[in-house]
Amino acid sequence: MEYLAAFGIGCIGCGINIVCGFGFGIVTMMVLPFVMDSTMGAAALVNIVTLFQASWICYHYRLSVAWKMMVVPLAAYFLVSWFVVRYASGLANDTLKTMLGVFLIGLSVYFIFFAGHVRMKANVPNGVAAGALGGVMSALFSVGGPPVSLYFSAATEEKEAYLATIETYFLFSNLYIVVLRAVHGVITKDVLLCSAFAAVGMVLGTYLGSTVFRRISADTMRKAIYGLMAVCGLVMVFS
Question: Which residue pairs, CB below 8 angstroms and at least 24 apart, start in 169-172?
Fold first, then answer.
């Protein structure tokens, strides 16, 4: 069941990601913790699959990467995520699921009411803040994109530079945290098999995102995801 769920979530999450610009990590963490035995295992799956996805995009846009802009947020990410992974590896799965529920509720509130109004200047303090907050969010729930997205969108002027830089950031950050999770025993044979099924599902999801999902309004899809995030968060908190 969990392998089929991983395949389906990989497919749907990738399709949504193509239309909305986000979705794989959030959709995965809304569903797989209910199916897999470990919330941290579901988070590890997101890291593994995102690592391979980012590798392809980084290679394609490798000439547009703004390397210097990544140094500060990556350094903050590496330091903070190291502490958080060590802390989270000792938490009970029920505790992690409750924390994930609260996080999803908070994230849905942010996207609905504040995302369109928040701006971030590209400077060293904001780079540290974005990397550190992304490190906490990624280490716990593998959804560390929002703060670094704000930072890199302010730091880059061209669309290609933004995409190349943030995906290269995701490449290094996910590679690092996959190693951390492996060291702490989170990445098991079961997690690797689920990741493989999710990766195959993403191939189909690429087609769906380019055909079927394109017929749905991106704004409507985003609102549906925000509402679903809140519902899933409430279920996790009170289950």
Answer: 169/70, 169/73, 169/74, 170/50, 170/51, 170/54, 170/145, 171/51, 171/54, 171/55, 171/58, 172/70, 172/74
DSSP state of 188: -
d(CA 170, CA 168): 5
Show the tokens assigned to 218: 């991106």
21 token code pair: 């610009």
In sequence order, which residues have a C-beta less than 8 Å from that of residue 156 and are 6 or more positions away? 66, 69, 162, 165
pLDDT tens-place string over residues 181-225: 999 999 999 999 999 999 999 888 877 776 766 677 767 777 878
pTM confidence score: 0.86
The amino acid occupying position 104 is L
**CB 81, CB 180: distance < 8 Å:** yes
- Per-residue burial over 29-55, b if 16 or more Cβ lie within 10 Å, else e, is bbbbbebbebbbbbbbbbbbbbbebbb
